[in-house]
User: Fold these one by one.
Assistant:
Number 1:
Amino acid sequence: MEQRRIMVVEDHAETCELLRYNLTVAGFEVRTALDGQQGLNIMTRWRPDLVLLDLMLPEIDGFEVCRRLKQITSLSAVPVIFLTARTDEVDRVVGLELGAEDYVLKPFSTRELLLRIKIVLRRTSTEAGDAEELFERDGLLVNFAAHEMNVDGDARVLTATEQKLFKAIVQSRGRVLSRDRLLDTVWNTDFEGTSRTVDTHMRRLRAKLGPYADWIETVRGVGYRFKA
């Protein structure tokens, strides 16, 4: 299963390392930063699935980091959980108004924090899946609900498998999906297919994409990636 990415922005080195360790043990891919600007710099290059953000930070405080994050189109949908020792209600209200998903007070239970992270990831993934029934870019329009593709005004019909394959690639957000991962996602874990199965369907999908076929890149020896 693909690792979910978590960005930790926390200026207390020991707390930062403790979070990194526990999140890694829990199966997440983790990056850390000790100040707000460093955190933003990393996030613009490495899109996380969720951000754990301390409120009191050097250089740029957590509120400003969240505000700037939400102004970046490619990162605006990334959920944020604030971590702070400040108990003022006004801070919680401001954080939520800026678009944060949750607000966890220090000291916190690692078990509770992991549970909150999983709840937020599950909720935001479900919302994203519900919202992404249409894909439109340049001359390509895909209606997942209707299994229809329109390429520069030319209507084409997608099979259920082609639709699942294209949707999985698009929602990968530019990450490489291995053939085994695609077999599990598009077909199922019990399907006794091979990498050739994926390649065959990918060729058919690319044929229907026409001039936009090169948006799906082949990563030799690994799998496929959608050009972000």
Number 2:
Amino acid sequence: MIDKAREIALKVLYKIDKDEAYSNIILNEMINKNSDMLSKKDIGLISEIVYGVTTWRFTIDEIIKKHSKIRIKKISPWILNILREAIYQIIFLDKIPKSAAVNEGVNLAKKYGNKGSIGFTNAILRNIDEKDYKDLFNEKDELNRISKTMSMPKWIIEELKEDGLDNNKILDICKNSNIRPNISIRVNNLKTNKNELKDILNKEGIDVKEGILSDFLVLEKARGIENLKSFKEGLFTVQDEVAGLTALVLNPKEGENILDACSSPGGKTTYLAEIMKNKGYIEAWDIHEHRVELVKQNSKRLGIAIINEKVEDASIYNENYKNKFDKILLDVPCLGIGVLKRKPDIKWQKKKEEIDTISKTQFNILDTCSKYLKDEGELVYSTCSIFKSENRNLIEKFLNSNSEFELETLNFNEKFFLNYLSEGKYLEVYQNEKTDGFFICKLAKKGKK
């Protein structure tokens, strides 16, 4: 009899490959669809397998290549993902016996393969052991070794190398891209305070600890957060702390006129409103109607009334907005290499060729929206990427052609982030045990003399 949890995990992995879909979306859909027949333990195993295989896919495929006479591209997608699923359990999950992983893999092959693939699956899985992973560390070329042992595409490693990072730093980034992310939440001070929220969450069965930033808490072993009463009542927002730091760096004031030009799903936008104590005006743009709707939903849940959500393309100049805003937040579209531990699919979906295209889009948005800033106004530029071509290099290019702007020194008291502050003006956070990778800088527009 086939184990239901492993079969659902297989279906999710197959769909991720077939449709190039994001694992979190497909995973949630599949769990919700089968929720009546799944226990908490089942859901935990499904999530573990899906995120684990997605994270370690390249490493697992290297192990398959070692044992298979058939090329990876020639293996049936169903059988390939059965192998990946079973090998992940054998190599990376200590609590699951090898015999269970092998037997369940063969059972799945009987349903999703043919007679030949059943024997093929059985033969490979019975030959797998932990030594297969350890052998990858014998790779002589250091960058190849990092790629194979840390399951990181070579082009990402090469890009970081070109940015001037040494091999130890690159290895550290890759390691931290594979760990499970913290679940950090931002207290909605419009409705509650940190101590009250701690008590409420404890009563809901959630353990909490202090975050890095004063408005943040970190949740321990929390699942189904969106189903909590406290979440539905808008007492908090799920947000990585370094992403929240963008709003603190912009430092909006009550009564100011603010633009968040790339706002969806609204985490940073709503934090701006909370900092402003729901007094002032914020325009929140996105290019797609359904994403604008996400900002509206978040604003409503949090009890925020000062956000005006609009479908607007931030890369196309609109004379009506010239010199209109006191402050602007540009958290621009990016490759997302800083959030790999949260979205491991990005490693396999993004390509090196996209760097040039995305950096041109980023520059266009910055150049366009900078014209919407009042004299003596301030603009924060941020990305959840860690490539210099999307960040520092782009800002330097902008400043070279826009003499009315200058970089501001970043002032904040959070000692943890000070370790990532370069020249006092570039916050270049690489993936670490507590936060995602991120880039933040602040530009000021000079007043007319």
Number 3:
Amino acid sequence: MFHHALRRFSLLLAAITLLGLSGCGYNDFQRLDEQSKAAWAEVLNQYQRRADLIPNLVSTVKGEANFEQETLTKVIEARSRATAIQVTPETLNDPQAMERFQQAQGQLGSALSRLLVVAENYPSLKANQAFQELRVQLEGTENRITVARNKYIETIQQYNVLARSFPTNLTAMIFSYAPKASFTVANEAEISRPPTVDFGKSTPAR
């Protein structure tokens, strides 16, 4: 009988604990933590997609006589720096690491934009089927990067509000749910609109 009463008390205590955790945001932390990881994985996936397009883009541009070597070199170097950064799940909790990552990706985006602007001066490039197809793929990837980043920012904002607000901040302290690093405020206005990489109105022939 004693064991039966003890078991009932343990079950009641567990139920109260679960209700308390739910009321203090524990389940929300679990949900938003998983969502932030998924959103971050999509950001990385789209950045990788862009990086994978660059070798073919560079190879195509190299075939153009007298193309600005400095512009091409900057793209190659920027891609090298961006892909050399080791990104781990801990990056989400490290504002300095996140800042380095943002800077590298921003430099790559700027170098690519410059290359496409310069390409406007080369009619043969604009008429090159392979180059036009790469341009369209790059434009689509830039748009997907923007969507993925905005989704990540939205999820992180929800998570961080939960981590800093009372009484859910107590749950965050108990279970070590520290605020996560988002994109910097200075970049968020720029992130909110897709980068313009379309330097021509024509569409590639199908």
Number 4:
Amino acid sequence: MPFRIIRNDITKVKADAIVNTANPEPRFAGGTDFAIYKAAGEKSLLEKRREIGRIAPGEAAVTPAFALNARFIIHTVGPQWIDGEHGEFEILRSCYKKSLVLADSLGCESIAFPLIATGVYGFPKDIALRTALDVIREHLENSELDVTLVVFERDSYRLASSLTERIEEYIDENYVGEKTKVEYRERFERFGGPMFAGNIAFRSNTAADLFCNRASLEETDAAEAPKSAPAAAQGRRSLDDIVNNLGESFRQRLFRMIDERGMTDAQVYKRANIDRKLFSKIRCSEDYIPKKKTIVSLAIALRLDLDDTRDLLAAAGLLLTNNSKSDVIVSFCIENGIYDIYEVNALLFKFDEPILG
């Protein structure tokens, strides 16, 4: 995956390059810097760090990774937050950019970052996150590097409160989940089939839900079709006719949509945050159907509205539903014009949902 966000200890992450939020001078104290020195082997790492000497804020330098599960440690010095008017943003952007460029020049295929400067340097976490995502997005437009943003504690990861409040309200209004199961529990004794709430069909694995689902389907059929009408009058088609006229496949629909928007393959898979090899498999394999999260990522990349997103999923036999919190968050993003896959993934991560790509 080109970009992902994980909650972990960065010293335990496997990557070609691990980024250290370094002290400007060749010494280490607390936070991520201390943890990396301890995990790598402080004596050997400090010796190499002394060979580099002082690192200016916004600059980056490299040492071997020693005992870490990596090839290199890229040391970069973040800005001390004052008030945002003393070059803090430019320095932070430089930290990410120069680390990414250095990783590419070293032949790395992967790099892992902490959220730089948000510890003792006091950079506001929501602004630091936005800056990191912006620089990483820009770099990956012209690089195949796999980038991981590693968050150690939940409190280290923050988004603008106004946006999270809007999403929480949207989830409260639209997420069905367990509420629907309780509402239809009594019908378990009598019926079965795909559960419906509003106009959206829900999939479920429980026996109770299967019974609830069939009830909804049977009632819908009863309301829409005259019970006494013969099959021919209802316009029913033969099985041969149905099989021979299946309509547009998922692959056909996807690449038609791409062509209609005049997009290149590279634009699509980068905006979707999916691997080039995976996209090539979708392009070249007639019957291959990717995972649901990949299809949703492609819909985000193509800036589809909700109806077109549902149509694309339906072509693969899948649904966007209100009994999946991640689906509800994706729906919020589409309805509110949030088509930046990095921002969508940041929101999913914030609510402990799997990211797209």
